[in-house]
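Fold sample X.
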Amino acid sequence: MIETSSAGTSGTSHSDRGVVELRQVEIAFERPEQDPLLIIHNYDLSLPPGIMHCLAGRSGSGKTSILRVAAGLVPPTSGTVAWNGEDVTAIPDDQRTALRRTTIGYVDQGGVLVAGLTAIENVLLPALPGRNARRLTGTAMNLLDQLGVAARANYFPERLSGGERQRVAVARALLLGPAAILADEPTASLDRATADGVIDMLTALTRQGIAILVASHDQHLIDAASSRTTLS
């Protein structure tokens, strides 16, 4: 069962064209010698600029699957995914990857960072394919500063707290100026004060016009979202 509702906390109209749009999306997993396991059926979502939408529900309900499909990391079984009006299910993988780099910032659960790189080196990773790391170093430092972790720029991940790693991961996702941030359980395993700081950070990003799609079972984050889908 899928139930979508609005929290009424944003002035942005949901009639705006979505930065991320899912239309009639179905997600099913193949199983050996069994029928495919259908977890998402005919799901629609339009995420305008400046809106935070939360995918809520129990573990295993399909939150992460929707998030990964919306990010173009895996294809839907059927249906379409569009970014700024372009159907990304209909373009080759290399084109979708290039478009994702400048349109979508993806944050894995736990703010996963590369262990052998410092915080700022992790932030600069998206710039490497375009060989723009040196040019974007100032931007990376500014992002770390805005997120309150500039003093940790040269620290390796093992020296960062969970909240600091999450903020570095968000800085990395923001480096190339994406229109949308997609984050999987961004407050999971964080203490309440740190988790609330991450929520404040995400809310601040929506005020800059960034669209945010999060998967979470954290009621504080669910309540902070402009709208939500509850999966069961």
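Fold sample Y, listed below.
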Amino acid sequence: MSTDQLDTQARELLQQMTNGLQTSLEAFYRLFESRVYQYALTRLNDPHEAADTVNEVMMEVWKHASRFEGRSRVSTWLLGITHHKVYDRLRKRKHRNREEDIDDYSDRLSDDSNTAMDNIIAAMQDSELIRNCLDNLSEAHREVVHLAFFEDLAYQEIARIVECPEGTVKTRVYHAKNALKKCLSQHIN
């Protein structure tokens, strides 16, 4: 199913939810459960919390389907809701995940290495090495990498979801790619 077809179907389901048709929520859930779960898991690093987040997000969609204004794709709107639910969970945690300072060494990496980085990520997407390197990123960097590479969203859409300027998203992606390159090169060479 193409992105446009998915969006059209999702918009119809949201309209049906607005009219109270419960089976539309079930269909919507099937369409987006995996994406919401993967996004939440990327941020929370806890499968149980990610599953709970999926349920919270879907309940929010059910209750407030009429709030979708159609100014973006449904998936962008949905991942925005997910972003807020994840943020609430992270804020409630007593301990904060350790932020890793990647700025110290990012200046030493060249821009032409980004193409090689894209090839490495694509070739090793399912490996444990990628998961470990992603886990070493800060929450903010892990989030934009997930949205850019796994959800294939444009920087403008990512900026709407994480509620920051598009330039900040570009900077985060740049630094995250460089950190991933460094992490992968340490294990590959």
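Sample Y note: The chain has two domains: 3-92, 103-188.
Also: The first helix runs from residue 3 to 18.
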